[in-house]
Write a structure and sequence with these properties.
alpha/beta; 8-stranded mixed beta sheet; globular
């Protein structure tokens, strides 16, 4: 099972949008048995993918081993995609990790799932925190959405600098997200980093919240769906090279 974390130091850059659509691509473009694990207490991925299921306020209990991860796995309306949902209990997850003092607790929990799934997508909360440190030890690849703006670029540079000081650092895949090529700043940013995948700003992407579904499920031939598909193929190539 390959573990792909969608992470950024900065909030509001489209992490959930990427997570949900990458899970869809893993399950449908690559026909992989896929688990989406929502680690963000805002629970946006959970809301989008869980149908009408109600939160159980047990998400944190996985990490204290009061409940097995498998017991919180739920199906989604989408074939080959299962979900471990988030809820308000994750608001104190950083403190739990600090008190446990188990640097690889998440990695060990992930290893218990590798027989059931081929791809695991982690939707991560923003910030350099105890949770992000756990994610960096558990992931095979970290996908970092970067809006073409100085603040978002600065946040990405800080993540790079943070990982540069670590042994066996996890590879990063930066992605230009929420791109409007008509904007000069966006066009200049893309020209400066032509090798980064690009996810456009599009009304179809914004309509995910109303439809509570990945773009590929309701607009498979759209430019946005193609962009997510191209990104997923880039991820699969990265994973195959690392194998």
């Amino acid at each position: 099972m390959a573990v792909i974390a969608v992470y950024s130091l900065k909030g509001g850059v489209g992490k959930t949008t990427l997570s949900v659509n990458l899970a869809w691509c893993a399950a449908h473009a690559s026909a992989r048995r896929t688990l989406l694990w929502d680690l963000d207490p805002q629970a946006a991925s959970t809301w989008l993918m869980a149908g009408d299921s109600k939160p159980r306020d047990q998400a944190q209990a996985i990490f204290t081993k009061d409940i097995e991860a498998e017991r919180l796995i739920r199906t989604t309306p989408f074939e080959r995609i299962d979900l471990i949902g988030a809820d308000a209990s994750l608001r104190s997850l950083d403190r739990v990790f600090h008190e446990l003092d188990k640097k690889k607790r998440l990695a060990k929990l992930v290893s218990t799932l590798d027989k059931a799934y081929e791809r695991l997508i982690l939707d991560c909360p923003p910030g350099l925190t105890e949770t992000s440190e756990q994610v960096m030890r558990a992931a095979d690849l970290i996908v970092v959405p970067v809006i073409p703006s100085p603040l978002s670029t600065r946040a990405f540079d800080e993540v790079v600098a943070h990982l540069d000081g670590k042994r066996g650092k996890v590879p990063l895949l930066p992605v230009h997200a929420m791109v409007d090529r008509r904007r000069k700043l966006h066009a200049e940013a893309i020209a400066a980093q032509p090798d980064w995948p690009v996810i456009p700003m599009a009304s179809l992407v914004e309509s995910m919240a109303a439809r509570r579904a990945p773009v590929g499920s309701f607009a498979p031939r759209s430019a946005a769906a193609k962009a997510f598909g191209d990104l997923w193929q880039a991820i699969e190539r990265r994973l195959s090279k690392a194998a």
